[in-house]
Design goal:
Number of strands: 17
Subcellular location: Cytoplasm
Protein name: ATP-dependent 6-phosphofructokinase
Radius of gyration: 24 Å
Largest sheet: 11 strands, mixed
Bound molecules: adenosine-5'-diphosphate, 1,6-di-O-phosphono-beta-D-fructofuranose, magnesium ion
Helix content: 25-40%
GO molecular function: 6-phosphofructokinase activity; ATP binding; metal ion binding
Mean pLDDT: 92
GO biological process, one term: fructose 6-phosphate metabolic process
Main location: cytoplasm
Distance between the termini: 27 Å
Number of helices: 15
């Protein structure tokens, strides 16, 4: 942990292997800041709540499955309102920015930050930054009030607009300083949180009383530590419509094959959960589980068998799956988007063409294949009811944290409890489907597809007893 390169990490060790990875506080670099009683104490809606304020010593354990004699392990500070705050409501000048790809629920988070600040803390000055990070220095701001954001949660996308690239730290912090902003709410994925971390570092270097709070957005579910991000549930639900269509098309013709491509650049969570939810999927292909087409145990052999058994089949493929195979047969362009993310080849189109070509060559089996690509449909929609509630809790946790003077943190639910997590924990690695975990085994058992792992590869995987202690255990909670 000490090797992370972050000189400001706050690690507190306790008894029996208890470790708290705390988040920074404004008082870490600005001593003697004045505190004020939390206005929630006199808020009619909240003042009656028993134990509404979070105890300063409350922390959330990263692992809920522990061995009798094992260490207590890593903990994060529990999110929620504190007795005292470090800002007077009239002095708060907050801003909100959304960055990266779209995700259902962005508008709900924006709405709930504005309404949370306004209704819980009496804050009146909230600005929207137009068009992602570059909006800080190249665009006008948008004043946000509860009235303005009242029904935005019913719309997909983000009312603030978003972008990739354009992260210029000093220009962004100059803009924050020039505008007198003292609370920055940054909603975005892994790239955005890396950007938020450097903004926080620069603000701290300049000694500014500015709280920086991240709200993790990832439709792919690729952010580690947190249980899930908002919008994931909605995306999986929307994916069902594409899978249903593929299934209807496939079962209506002899040897019908439906191929559905879903988002998931580096990880296959959407595909895995959409497959498990649907029960109509015969094969799910994800980036974490390499596959091959030809020969014994390959995809073509499986398709042939399944068509003989059932007369039709549905394949779900994550956009990042099989990219090595695609590059072998198509000229690899190796392009990147403005944020430096690799641009992927269309694996759905590629696999559809390969399947068609294979069965045309076999000449014994006439197949009908329909390829459905609902990529942007699953993320350009408003969030569902459950995600809406989740967005509200995340937004309120961020507001409570910033008002309480915490900074340099991302909010997230860890084992169901909302927590403040240091940026480096969120950005140091990507969350992936662990194909030796039980969730992937459940999928293999439900689709009865080949694992595409040759025996010697399986033997190389970690033994289950070791995995119990592995950080990845949380990825697919059993
Ligand atoms: N390592 C980084 N340092 C600073 N800013 C970054 C970094 N990676 C990405 N960003 C910025 O974060 C924003 C969003 O990143 P992107 O990867 O497109 O989406 P996401 O945050 O959803 O992963 C972009 O404006 C990009 O410039
Ligand atoms: O076409 P765009 O906007 O670059 O988005 C495509 C990408 O967005 C994603 O949903 C991930 O985006 P983020 O990194 O912004 O979360 C990927 O699954 C997909 O490859
Ligand atoms: Mg990303």
């Amino acid at each position: 942990m000490e090797d992370s390169g972050d000189s400001h990490m706050k690690i507190i060790n306790g008894e029996a292997g208890y470790v708290l990875e705390d988040v920074p506080h404004l008082t870490d670099y600005i001593p003697d800041l004045t505190t004020y009683p939390n206005p929630l104490q006199v808020n009619p809606a909240y003042s009656t709540v028993k134990q509404y304020f979070v105890d300063m010593d409350d922390t959330v354990s990263q692992k809920v499955v522990v061995h009798k004699d094992g260490p207590r392990g890593l903990h994060f500070r529990r999110a929620g309102p504190r007795q005292n705050v470090y800002f007077r409501p009239d002095d708060v000048h907050a801003c909100i920015v959304t960055c990266g790809g779209l995700c259902p629920g962005l508008n709900t988070v924006i709405r709930e930050i504005v309404c949370g600040l306004y209704h819980m803390y009496g804050v009146r000055n909230v600005l929207g930054i137009d068009g992602g990070y570059r909006g800080f220095y190249s665009k006008n701001t948008i004043p946000l009030t509860p009235k303005f954001v009242n029904d935005i949660h019913k719309r997909g996308g983000t009312i603030l607009g978003t972008s990739r690239g354009g992260h210029d730290t000093s220009k962004i912090v100059d803009s924050i300083q020039d505008r007198g902003i003292n609370q920055v709410y940054i909603i975005g994925g892994d790239g955005t949180q890396k950007g938020a971390a450097v903004i926080y570092e620069e603000i701290r270097r300049r000694g500014l009383k500015v709280a920086v709070a991240g709200i993790p957005k990832t439709i792919d579910n690729d952010i580690p530590v947190i249980d899930r991000s908002f919008g994931f549930d909605t995306a999986v639900e929307e994916a069902q419509r594409a899978i249903n269509a593929a299934h209807v098309e496939a079962e209506s013709t002899e040897n019908g094959i439906g191929v559905v491509k879903l988002m998931g650049r580096y990880c296959g969570f959407i595909s895995m959960y959409a497959t498990l939810a649907s029960r109509d999927v015969d094969c799910c292909l994800i980036p974490e589980s390499p596959f091959y087409l030809e020969g014994k145990g390959g995809l073509f052999e499986f398709i042939k068998r399944r068509l003989k058994e059932n007369g039709h089949m549905v394949i779900v493929i994550a956009e990042g799956a099989g990219q090595d195979l695609v590059s072998e047969s198509l000229q690899s362009l190796d392009q990147q988007d403005a944020s430096g993310n690799r641009l992927l080849q269309d694996v759905g189109l590629w696999i559809s063409q390969r399947i068609k070509a294979h069965f045309a060559k076999e000449n014994k089996m006439n197949i009908t294949l329909k390829y459905i690509d609902p990529t942007y449909m699953i993320r350009a929609i408003p969030s569902n009811a459950s995600d809406n509630v989740f967005c509200t809790l995340l937004a309120h946790s961020a507001v409570h944290g910033a008002m309480a003077g915490f900074t340099g943190f991302t909010v997230g639910s860890v084992n169901g409890r909302h927590s403040y997590i240091p940026f480096n924990r969120i950005t140091e690695k990507q969350n992936k489907v662990v194909i030796t975990d039980r969730m992937w085994a459940r999928l293999l058992s439900s689709t009865d597809q080949p694992s595409f792992l040759r025996p010697k590869v399986v033997n190389k995987q970690e033994k289950p007893s070791i995995q119990l202690l592995n950080d990845n255990l949380k990825d697919t909670k059993q």
